[in-house]
Amino acid sequence: MTAVTADGVIHISTGVGAGPTDLAAYDAALAAVNVHDYNLVAVSSVIPPGATIRQVEEIPPLGAAGGRLFVVESVAVDAGDVPVAAILGWTDREGQGLFYEATGTDLTVVRERVDMGIEAGCRLRGWQVPPVVRAEAVDPPTDAAAHAVVCIATYGEAEPML
Protein backbone atom coordinates (compact mmCIF):
# COMPACT_ATOMS: atom_id res chain seq x y z
CA MET A 1 0.00 0.00 0.00
CA THR A 2 1.09 3.52 -0.74
CA ALA A 3 1.88 5.63 2.33
CA VAL A 4 1.95 8.97 0.55
CA THR A 5 1.52 10.08 -3.03
CA ALA A 6 4.34 9.36 -5.45
CA ASP A 7 5.71 12.84 -4.88
CA GLY A 8 5.46 12.46 -1.07
CA VAL A 9 2.70 15.03 -0.55
CA ILE A 10 0.06 14.90 2.18
CA HIS A 11 -2.79 17.23 1.23
CA ILE A 12 -4.68 19.13 3.92
CA SER A 13 -7.97 20.93 3.46
CA THR A 14 -10.96 22.15 5.45
CA GLY A 15 -14.65 22.08 4.66
CA VAL A 16 -18.04 23.07 6.00
CA GLY A 17 -21.35 21.36 5.26
CA ALA A 18 -24.99 21.33 6.28
CA GLY A 19 -27.80 18.86 5.84
CA PRO A 20 -30.95 17.29 7.22
CA THR A 21 -28.98 14.80 9.39
CA ASP A 22 -25.56 14.66 11.05
CA LEU A 23 -24.31 12.21 8.43
CA ALA A 24 -25.64 14.31 5.55
CA ALA A 25 -23.87 17.37 7.01
CA TYR A 26 -20.63 15.39 7.35
CA ASP A 27 -20.95 14.15 3.75
CA ALA A 28 -21.48 17.75 2.59
CA ALA A 29 -18.34 18.86 4.46
CA LEU A 30 -16.39 16.05 2.78
CA ALA A 31 -17.78 17.16 -0.59
CA ALA A 32 -16.52 20.68 0.11
CA VAL A 33 -12.95 19.30 0.16
CA ASN A 34 -13.51 16.71 -2.63
CA VAL A 35 -13.13 13.46 -0.65
CA HIS A 36 -16.80 12.47 -0.46
CA ASP A 37 -16.47 9.72 -3.08
CA TYR A 38 -13.77 7.73 -1.25
CA ASN A 39 -13.95 5.20 1.55
CA LEU A 40 -11.95 6.95 4.24
CA VAL A 41 -9.67 4.88 6.47
CA ALA A 42 -8.53 6.68 9.61
CA VAL A 43 -4.88 6.29 10.53
CA SER A 44 -3.02 7.43 13.60
CA SER A 45 -1.38 10.78 13.49
CA VAL A 46 2.20 10.11 12.42
CA ILE A 47 3.66 11.95 9.45
CA PRO A 48 6.04 9.57 7.66
CA PRO A 49 9.65 10.60 6.98
CA GLY A 50 10.07 12.46 3.71
CA ALA A 51 6.45 13.64 3.47
CA THR A 52 5.63 17.15 2.33
CA ILE A 53 2.57 18.88 3.80
CA ARG A 54 0.56 20.95 1.35
CA GLN A 55 -2.51 22.96 2.43
CA VAL A 56 -4.99 23.27 -0.44
CA GLU A 57 -8.47 24.72 -0.94
CA GLU A 58 -9.66 21.37 -2.30
CA ILE A 59 -8.04 17.93 -2.29
CA PRO A 60 -7.04 17.00 -5.86
CA PRO A 61 -8.47 13.85 -7.45
CA LEU A 62 -6.72 10.87 -5.87
CA GLY A 63 -8.18 7.93 -7.77
CA ALA A 64 -11.41 6.18 -8.64
CA ALA A 65 -14.59 6.63 -6.65
CA GLY A 66 -15.07 4.02 -3.96
CA GLY A 67 -11.36 3.59 -3.39
CA ARG A 68 -9.79 3.29 0.05
CA LEU A 69 -8.09 6.54 1.09
CA PHE A 70 -6.00 6.90 4.24
CA VAL A 71 -6.74 10.06 6.23
CA VAL A 72 -6.28 11.87 9.50
CA GLU A 73 -9.35 13.98 10.17
CA SER A 74 -10.86 16.27 12.74
CA VAL A 75 -14.66 16.39 12.49
CA ALA A 76 -17.26 18.30 14.48
CA VAL A 77 -20.99 17.91 13.86
CA ASP A 78 -23.83 19.71 15.61
CA ALA A 79 -27.57 19.81 15.28
CA GLY A 80 -28.88 23.19 16.20
CA ASP A 81 -27.59 26.65 16.88
CA VAL A 82 -24.19 25.90 18.41
CA PRO A 83 -21.09 26.88 16.40
CA VAL A 84 -18.62 24.03 15.98
CA ALA A 85 -14.86 24.06 15.43
CA ALA A 86 -12.47 21.39 14.22
CA ILE A 87 -8.70 21.80 14.11
CA LEU A 88 -6.00 19.62 12.64
CA GLY A 89 -2.63 20.73 13.95
CA TRP A 90 0.77 19.39 13.01
CA THR A 91 4.46 19.79 13.50
CA ASP A 92 7.06 18.95 10.94
CA ARG A 93 10.51 17.80 11.99
CA GLU A 94 12.37 17.85 8.67
CA GLY A 95 9.83 15.71 6.87
CA GLN A 96 8.58 13.66 9.82
CA GLY A 97 6.13 14.78 12.42
CA LEU A 98 2.75 14.47 14.11
CA PHE A 99 -0.84 15.45 13.53
CA TYR A 100 -3.20 16.15 16.39
CA GLU A 101 -6.95 16.63 16.13
CA ALA A 102 -9.40 18.41 18.41
CA THR A 103 -12.99 19.63 18.21
CA GLY A 104 -15.40 21.65 20.29
CA THR A 105 -17.49 24.78 20.48
CA ASP A 106 -14.85 27.18 21.86
CA LEU A 107 -12.14 27.88 19.27
CA THR A 108 -9.64 29.07 21.88
CA VAL A 109 -10.01 25.88 23.92
CA VAL A 110 -9.74 23.72 20.79
CA ARG A 111 -6.50 25.49 19.80
CA GLU A 112 -5.10 24.94 23.29
CA ARG A 113 -5.96 21.22 23.17
CA VAL A 114 -4.20 20.85 19.81
CA ASP A 115 -1.07 22.58 21.11
CA MET A 116 -1.05 20.49 24.32
CA GLY A 117 -1.49 17.27 22.31
CA ILE A 118 1.35 18.09 19.92
CA GLU A 119 3.63 19.01 22.84
CA ALA A 120 2.80 15.75 24.65
CA GLY A 121 3.37 13.68 21.50
CA CYS A 122 6.74 15.31 20.87
CA ARG A 123 7.84 14.81 24.49
CA LEU A 124 6.77 11.16 24.31
CA ARG A 125 9.09 10.70 21.33
CA GLY A 126 11.96 12.70 22.83
CA TRP A 127 11.59 15.44 20.21
CA GLN A 128 12.04 19.16 20.67
CA VAL A 129 8.67 20.77 20.01
CA PRO A 130 8.75 22.56 16.66
CA PRO A 131 6.18 25.26 15.89
CA VAL A 132 2.62 24.02 15.50
CA VAL A 133 0.74 24.73 12.26
CA ARG A 134 -3.06 24.51 12.21
CA ALA A 135 -5.87 24.04 9.72
CA GLU A 136 -9.07 25.34 11.28
CA ALA A 137 -12.70 24.98 10.28
CA VAL A 138 -15.40 26.91 12.12
CA ASP A 139 -19.07 26.93 11.25
CA PRO A 140 -21.55 29.37 12.69
CA PRO A 141 -25.05 28.10 13.45
CA THR A 142 -27.27 27.57 10.41
CA ASP A 143 -30.94 26.97 9.72
CA ALA A 144 -30.08 23.42 8.61
CA ALA A 145 -30.98 20.53 10.88
CA ALA A 146 -27.25 19.72 11.21
CA HIS A 147 -23.95 21.31 10.30
CA ALA A 148 -20.43 19.91 10.18
CA VAL A 149 -16.84 21.03 9.82
CA VAL A 150 -13.91 18.87 8.79
CA CYS A 151 -10.15 19.29 8.64
CA ILE A 152 -8.60 16.42 6.72
CA ALA A 153 -5.15 15.20 5.69
CA THR A 154 -5.01 12.65 2.87
CA TYR A 155 -2.22 10.09 2.60
CA GLY A 156 -1.59 8.61 -0.82
CA GLU A 157 -3.78 7.68 -3.70
CA ALA A 158 -7.13 5.97 -3.27
CA GLU A 159 -6.72 2.22 -3.77
CA PRO A 160 -9.37 -0.13 -5.16
CA MET A 161 -11.22 -2.05 -2.48
CA LEU A 162 -12.32 -4.92 -4.74
How would you characterize this protein structure?
The chain has 162 residues and is an alpha+beta fold. The protein is built from 2 helices and 9 strands. It has helices at residues 22-33, 107-124, and strands at residues 9-19, 39-42, 46-47, 52-55, 68-78, 84-92, 97-104, 133-139, 146-159. The strands form 2 sheets. Strands 2-5-9-1-4 form a 5-stranded mixed sheet. Strand 6 and strand 7 (97-104) form a beta hairpin. It is flat, with a radius of gyration of 16 Å. The chain starts with 8 loop residues before the first strand and ends with a strand.
* Low-pLDDT ranges: 1-6
The helix tally amounts to 2
CA radius of gyration is 16 Å
Largest sheet: 5 strands, mixed
Strand order of the largest sheet: 2-5-9-1-4
| Helicity level | 10-25%
How many E strands?
9
Q: How far from one another are the termini?
A: 14 Å
Order of helices and strands: EHEEEEEEHEE
Q: Please identify the structural class as seen in this structure.
A: alpha+beta
Overall 3D shape? flat
Supply the key terms:
43% strand; 162 residues; 4-stranded antiparallel β-sheet; disordered N terminus
Topology:
Elements: E1 9-19, H1 22-33, E2 39-42, E3 46-47, E4 52-55, E5 68-78, E6 84-92, E7 97-104, H2 107-124, E8 133-139, E9 146-159
Summarize the structure.
The chain has 162 residues and is of the alpha+beta class. The protein contains 2 helices and 9 strands, in the order E-H-E-E-E-E-E-E-H-E-E.
